[in-house]
Amino acid sequence: MSINLANLFSFFRSHKKLKHEKAKAIQLLQTMQWSKLSWNESWEEIIELDSLLPRIGQKYLVKLEENEDFSQDGQALILWQPPHSDLNGWYDKRPSEILKSYIIEGILTDRQSDYETREITFNFEVSKCSKLVDYFSKAPVNRKSPLSSIGQGNGSSRIQWQNAVSLQKYPLGKLLYLSGMECETALELILSYEENRICIYYSATLHYPAHYETVITKYYLNREEQKIIEIIIDKAIEVIDTSDEFLTDKQILGAEYW
Question: What number of other Cβ atoms are within 10 A of residue 215's Cβ?
Fold first, then answer.
């Protein structure tokens, strides 16, 4: 039986393309303020990390902002941050707390919407707790860009980061944290340089009043995107953060304000 090599190569190319197309970013819910479940302890000067982290097997009442209205009953990943960053954001004085932020895995049930408080509530049973930065290795290489684009009057589009202001950056070893604002949208990236290419591991696009999108991914920027983000990095002001200078790996500082 003869084999048509052109057809064979075409099959492998299409199979490889299909495999890449199936790779999806890991969706993350991030508007739950865990500190409100242990409010008094969250304001102590120094806190043992394990005393605040959600415990495996326990159920918690989870409240999400209405911007995460796509959230449904079932398996979910929720971001956990130390109290100060939980209430004010990583960009506010303590981006080093990214290294002490976690992904909480579990099951959401009993979804309810409260139109007065603009919140969505669930019962959430915790099954696993992993460091955020350790989770980056679980994401497959993705060909879909996590960088949001905005349509222009002439029918074209631009990457939302292009017009971002209030730019800040913070080095995290081999990673870099980048934050900014574009109109009423908060933008965040955690990225690295790999062989002179920028790779995105974490992207948060918090549109207001539209829905939020927060993902863990592994996406290599194309040339156009890389030029834009390199300019943004150059413009960004580096945050001076000494909050963990005298802490152990298992300790965090409490919130200063909200």
Answer: 20
Query: Alpha carbon of 40 to those of 37, 112, 206: distances in Å?
Result: 9, 27, 28
**Alpha carbon of residue 219 to chain centroid:** 13
- State phi, psi for 201 to the nearest 5 degrees: -110, -30
Cβ count within 10 A of residue 150: 13
Structure tokens at 151: 């349509």
Global pTM exceeds 0.70: yes
For 164-198, write each residue's pLDDT tens digit.
Answer: 999 999 999 999 999 999 988 999 999 999 888 99
Other Cβ atoms less than 10 A from the Cβ of 42: the count is 22
Distance from C-alpha of 180 to C-alpha of 161, rounded to nearest angstrom: 8
Separation between Cα atoms, residue 204 and residue 147, nearest integer Å? 9
Return the pLDDT at 19. Answer: 41
- The structure tokens listed for 142 are 């993705």
Average pLDDT over every residue of 118-146: 94
- Nearest to 235, CA basis, from 185, 146, 190, 169: 169
pLDDT value of residue 6: 44
Query: Residue 107: is its pLDDT beyond 70?
Result: yes
The first and second tokens of residue 100, run together, are: 């002490």
| Alpha-carbon distance values, 25 to 12, 85, 204, 213 (Å) | 24, 24, 12, 11
Average pLDDT over residues 62-85: 92
Report how far residue 98's alpha carbon sits from residue 91's, in angstroms, rounded to the nearest whole number.
10
∠ CA 253-257-258, rounded to 5°:
120
